[in-house]
Amino acid sequence: MELNLYNPNEIEKAAEAYAEKNRGKVVGGLPDVVTIMEKKTLSLTCTVCGDPKPQVSWLKNGAEVEPDDQYVVSIDQGKFASLTIKGVSMENSGRYTMIVQNKYGGESVDIVVSVYRHGEKIPEAKPALTPKTIIPPKLPIEIPQPKTQPAPSGSSPAPSASSPAAPKAAPGRGIKSPTPSRRK
């Protein structure tokens, strides 16, 4: 059996913190609700981040959006993600979900798209109940190991107060100097 000098709870917490910091995230730019007139072009664009660069996918009502002549999915420089719907029609109404994810997890954002016909009253669209959902990391969380292994806690090389190699006190601070003072 291998002896682990680290506290497994601490490792888990550190791993979770690392995953939280590096997971795929939507930095902003997406609305909760979009109402758009028929035949217009809708572009949903936002900034994403994560390390490694996250994968971005789009769903419509829970099914993956297949890019075609009408749906254009793009990711620019690994951080600007967009879904463009050309010539929207009533069939394009629904709940769109953008999923941003890497091995440390990610999040999904819902956008409710409501298409209306020219001349109709603009519909009252309500945002999804949970506009953003956090996706947990894939387990076990793998953290890239630092090149130098940190010293295990408990055997720290830093000098402590009870260390025998404590620095000698400077003369003149309440300690008598071995040479007698020449006050005459």
Automatic annotation (TrEMBL):
Q: Which InterPro entries would you find in this protein's record?
A: Cell_Adh-Cytoskel_Orgn, Ig-like_dom, Ig-like_dom_sf, Ig-like_fold, Ig_I-set, Ig_sub, Ig_sub2
Region: Disordered, residue numbers: 127-184
Q: Which UniProt keywords apply?
A: Disulfide bond, Signal
- Residue span(s) of domain Ig-like: 8-114
Q: Does the keyword NAD apply?
A: no
A Pfam family this protein belongs to?
I-set
Q: Which portions of the chain have biased composition (kind: Low complexity)?
A: 131-171
Name used for this protein in its record: Ig-like domain-containing protein
Annotated organism of origin:
Ilyodon furcidens
